[in-house]
Structure formats: C-alpha cells, structure tokens
Amino acid sequence: MQYGDFAKLYDTLMSDVDYDGWASYIEGFIPEDASVLECACGTGEITLRLAKAGHSIVATDVSEDMLRVASEKLRLSGAAAKRVHFARMDMRETAVHKPVDCVVCCCDGVNYLLSREDVKRFFMSASSALRSGGLLLFDISSRYKLKELLGQNCFADNDADHPYIWQNTYDAQSKLLRMELAFFIKQGELYSRIDEAHIQRAHSVKEISSWLEECGYEYDIYKCFGTETPDDTTERIQFVARKL
Q1: Separation CA 203–CA 70 (nearest Å)
Q2: Could you give the CA distance from residue 208 to residue 92 in angstroms, rounded to a whole number?
Q3: pTM higher than 0.85 for the full model?
Q4: Which of 9, 10, 117, 233 has its CA at a distance of 20 to 30 angstroms from the CA of residue 67?
Q5: What is the pLDDT of residues 125-163, one digit of tens each?
C-alpha cells in the first residue's frame, strides 16, 4: 500500500461519502467531551467533525502524506484545530501519554490488517490506550461486499480532471481483495498517470467477534449507520466494543 500523490487524490475518490452523517453516527456512541485516539485518520474528514463536536483528539495515520493533508485541512478550519494533535503511528502499535475515553477507526482501517495476528495487535494496542470501560469503535467492509460487490470487478470514472480505472481481484482462499487503481491527472493537454495497489482482507463477523473476546472486550454489532443487526448482504458493519 502506498500513499504519496494518492493522498492528494483521496478526497476526490471519496467525494460521494457523507462524512457529516458518518461523523454524526460515530458521535452518537462517544461520551460528551471525550478524549479520542483516532487510528488511520486519513485526510482528517472524521477528525475535523469530531473536533468541531468538542472532543480532544490524537489523530494518527501511518502515512505522512495523509497526515500532511489532514493537518492543512484542520489548520484552515480555525478553532477546531486546537483540539487536535497529529502523530504518525501504526495502529498496531499505538501509544498515548494518558488513557483515552475512546479509540476510533473508520472506513476500512481494520480491513487493511491482513492477518489474525495484526488485528489482535490492534485490539490489544487500543486496549492499552483506553481507560477501563473505554470504547473501541471501528467498522469493516463486509466479506459480502469485498467478495461479491468489489471482487473481480472493474470500475472507472471519466472525470475530465481526474479520470481513474479501478480493477479488483478477490482470492477466495486467502480472503484477500487486491485493488489496483490508475489515476490520470490532467496537465495541460496531457495526463500523467499515478498507480496505486491496495490490499484488504474480508474478515468475517465471527472472526472479529472471537478476536475481540480474546482481547478482553464486550461488544455490540450493527449495520453501519444504524442499530439493526447485520445480515448476509450488509455491506458495512459497525463494532462498538467496550474494554472490560
């Protein structure tokens, strides 16, 4: 996985995401004025909204380029930026000066952890950052979505300034989805090409639930953006876990 020039294009690719609704949904689980550790914060869209809601946030990502975009976005936001501290950090190895009320990871961060060991390392790392009874909030793209909707499919957008081609390959044995993206950036009358390759694992609800229990959490599971129980065709699943 790379994040270089792609960090500048990420918001273009995600332009149809309702971040206001997403942040509002997450906010519904977080105590008032909570301290938050955000993992895989990307370009800071959720960060910005949680900060505006009054939370103090340590926003982390493994990509310096993503953090640079997020930091500039928060700087331009005004007062909300004062509640945010950015840090380059692997979500499997988080560290905080004092325990936080909530750890948040949105938009497939856990799907990018490709093994049982890595997911459990994240859960344990989050636990070490949380106060007793603190919340771990994260979502996953479901196995149904990665296998049936994205796997073996190709998507394209012919936007005049940033056209792209997105080719996916799903391996049923490893449960890994490989996403190959080619962006074409208009420069005068010509286009330059940027290639990105990303891999996600299609974790099952049963797997995630088992690993949470092994790491000392109790939890609830919802269809993301609601409180209904996920079914076999749910595309995004929200976990609300509490450190015991």
Answers
A1: 28
A2: 15
A3: yes
A4: 117
A5: 999 999 999 999 999 999 999 999 999 999 888 876 778
